[in-house]
Amino acid sequence: MARAEHLEGLVALADMARLAEQAGAQSGDARVWLDFGIDAQGCREICGHLEAELQLSCRRCLEPVAQRIDSDFRLGMVTSDALAAELPGTHEPVLVENEQLNLLAVLEDELILSLPQVVYHDEAECPVSRDQLHSGEASDASIDSPVSPFDVLRQIKGKL
Ligand SMILES: [Zn+2]
Predict the structure, then answer these.
(1) Residue 139 C-alpha to ligand 1 middle, in angstroms?
(2) What is the distance, to the nearest Å, from the Cα of residue 94 to the centroid of all Cα atoms in its chain?
(3) Which of 12, 17, 63, 89 has the smallest count of CB within 10 Å of its CB?
(4) 0.90 exceeded by the pTM?
């Protein structure tokens, strides 16, 4: 792939409203590395990596747990849904309209897709877990299922 342009930097997590809906309000920055290029088929693509530390809520006690997100992705920039369907499976389609790419939204999507379905404290650090070790109760049978990353993906695709 011809490397046309490289970009790296920090993106403020507090600016990501959709991430906040999925994962609660965040602070700090995501660190991103992006290579913009053109693949062998002439498709414009972005190879990226992003890292962030999010505060997600523990499914047992609902207190925050620091969760490290580390994601590699490969995006194919397309101008229509038809072209998106032709992308190789290695690429996630990103719709570019009028040459405008909303990079922040793309990075936010990547973070949302990288969210773990469920997070827990280590048992020794979780107050509820400690209590349950004594009472012997089943932990999470009554808690609603978390949002699956695939549901999120469907929502995002529905918007393209
Ligand atoms: Zn906990």
Answers:
(1) 11
(2) 14
(3) 89
(4) no
Is the per-residue pLDDT at 2 higher than 70? no
Strand pairing class (92-95; 64-78): parallel
* More confident site: 95 or 48: 48
Burial of 78 from C-beta contacts in 10 A (0-12 / 13-18 / 19+)? buried
CA of 104 to the centre of ligand 1 (A): 31
Q: How far is the CA of 144 from the centre of ligand 1 (A)?
A: 16
How many angstroms does the Cα of residue 130 sit away from the middle of ligand 1? 9
Q: For residue 57, how far is its CA from the centre of ligand 1 (angstroms)?
A: 8
Residue spans per domain, the chain? 5-159
pLDDT tens-digit readout, 15-64: 999 999 999 999 999 999 999 998 887 888 999 999 999 999 999 999 99
In one-letter notation, the amino acid at residue 66 is: A
Report d(CA 57, CA 15) in Å as an integer. Answer: 19
Contact 45, 91 (CB under 8 A): yes
